[in-house]
Amino acid sequence: MPLFEKTRIEVYLPDLPRLAYQDFLASLQEELTYTFGGCSVNRGVEGFFLGRIGQIMRDRVNILHTDADIAFERNLDRISAYADQLRQAASEALEEEVILVVAFKVYHCA
Length: 110
Known about the structure:
By secondary structure, this protein is α+β, with helices and mostly antiparallel strands. 33% of the residues lie in helices and 42% in strands. The protein contains two helices and four strands. The chain is globular, with a radius of gyration of 15 Å.
């Protein structure tokens, strides 16, 4: 069976109980579903990062991802612009210094 190239877009959002975070998560789910036909959400993923003073900090995030029917290399400028729009929308809606948006090539076996 052949493999088909797609582009995976992931957005990492802090898992906080504040209404703005829940509302943005819901709007992003809707955006990815209408734009690409669906998305998945991994809620409450435990993550770790190194804090400013060198201590390990625990953080919980929600990871949204979608696999778009878009060839990665040929559309890198468009993919990059879309990822930046998602990051900008999250920055405007949430009280966060950094929102991680990731895009990379994946292959599906249909």
